[in-house]
Each structure stands twice: as C-alpha cells, then as structure tokens.
Amino acid sequence: MPAALGRPQEIEALKNVDVLMLSPMMPLVLEGIAREFNLLKAWEAPDREAFIREHAPRIRGMAPGSHYRVDGALMDKLPKLEIIANFGVGYDTIDAAEAGRRGIIVTNTPDVLTEEVADLAIGLLLATIRQLPQVDRYLRAGKWLEKPYPLTATLRDRKVGILGLGRIGKAVAKRLEAFGLEIGYHGRSAQKDVPYRFYPSLVEMAKDADVLMCVAPGGTETKGMVNAEVMRALGPDGVLINVGRGSVVDERALIEALRNKEILTAGLDVFEDEPRVPKELIEIEHAVLLPHVGSASVHTRNAMGQLVVDNLSSWFAGRGPLTPVAETPWTGRAA
Question: pTM for the full model?
Fold first, then answer.
C-alpha cells in the first residue's frame, strides 16, 4: 500500500525510486525524471501490459503522459503507487477520486499555463468571429485579385458568458474587459469579489450572451453540459469557443447546431476524442479548429514539464506535493 499520508518516509536515494511513464513526454520531462529516478518507459516495451506487470511491485510514482486512462483497474496493478504527476491543468483522464480513496497523490500543472491559454482563447475568439483563417486562405488562393473578402461578424457590442471562472476563466475575463465587453459567468456557485454577473443556470446565461466561452474542466459533472438546449439558447448570432475540455460540449449537438445555423460559428481547441476530430466538423468551413494548442508554446510547456518533475522530486524528498489536486487527501504535512 502507498505510504500513509502525513507519516515520515524512509530516506532513500531517489535513483532507487521507480517511476512509470506510459507514453513519451517532452525531453525536459523525460530527462528530468530519468536524471533523478529510475524511469520505466512502458511505450518502449514490446508488450506494455507485461512490462507493467513485471515492474509493478516496485513502481511508486507515475507520469502518465497523454491519452491514457489511469483508473482503479490500473491502480490495482500498482500496489506501491504513491503519486501520479499529471502534465496539464486538466486531469480528467485520471480517476483522482479513486486515487484519493487509496491515499495516492495526484498533481497537475496549474498557474504556469494560465496566461498562455487565456491569450489563445482571445486569439481563437477573434479568429473565429473575424474569420481570420478563412481570410488568409482567400488571399493565398488569389481570390483577392477577383473581389474583396465578404464582410464578417464583429466582436463589438457582444456579451460574453464564461463557463468556468477559475484561474484561466478569470484571466480570459480580464482580457475581455479591455475590449469593453459585458461579461457574465456560470459555475457551481457565485464567487466573492468578482465584478461579473453570476448565472445559476447555464441556459439562462446562454440566452443573454452572444459568445459562450467554455473554460470548464472535464469530468462527469461537466460532460456534455453544453448541449442542444444551450446552443439553441445561444442563438443564430451566437459564437461558441471551447478552450477547456472537449467533453464539456456535446459534439454531435454542436455539429447539428452549426449545420442548421442555430448558432453562428464555433472556435474549438479541444475535442471529445482527441486527436480524432469528426469529419463533419472539419467540413464546416466557417468553424475554426485548433489541435489543442492552448498551452503549446516552448516557454509554457517547459514550465509545465518542470512542474511535473518538481512534484515528483518534492514528494519523494519528503516535502510533499507542490500542486495537489482537490481530490487528493493531502494534509499539508511532509510525508
């Protein structure tokens, strides 16, 4: 079983600690973990499952990588697992509640990507409303020689409803204020010291808004919450932007809403089944689709990667996790 939270751990060289990585991560993470720990690269094994079974009795840490589900079944195979260090602020591929019940620490990488994702959200909003990718293609195809590009929609006088006013949501709102836009938000509850209108109902916020900016995390509570009813409420001049998690938006309902002109357009950086994007979405010319690049700058990804390494280092050095998620039963005392 994992070491009991709050109890002193035996001091041992970090190089003797086995850390499992399920898929390759950026060199900074690979090299950082390999430098401090005994890194087990599951993707290099001919049989990943056999590899995990072979090393399971000694594995104490995990840096999963992307697109792998870390659930109770996998945890069952790792009786000594103490910490799962996730790359990214979202951790819906990890059953953090189950990890918490088992006394396993889960960490993520908040704060270091907040500004980058907020910048991208504003860029995606502008690109979607002003059709910047389409205008670029128009010029490159030589069509400007024939006639000017048609007039586009505008950001002027729009009201933005933010779904998920967390760190990134607040950073997005701050940027939107500079555009002189009215802002509202929907979440679990109203927040103190926030100057924006709180909507207890997502549908009611969508009725009032011209832009629905989704910055909500994934998980069972938010799955499919931006559904057909919400899109109908947003209306034919409405714009949907999603930089949170693809699972928050009912993708089939979105496709139908775009096809039937129930909403004006959509800008998406995230999708339900990444990296697979529905052909029907790709074929909708006026939608703007990005391959989950919200935090994808060298600067920010390096900071995220270093935080993965630092969480593992801090935990196994007995200083506790640096950025434990909400479900982690961390007492704040060194382990």
Answer: 0.88
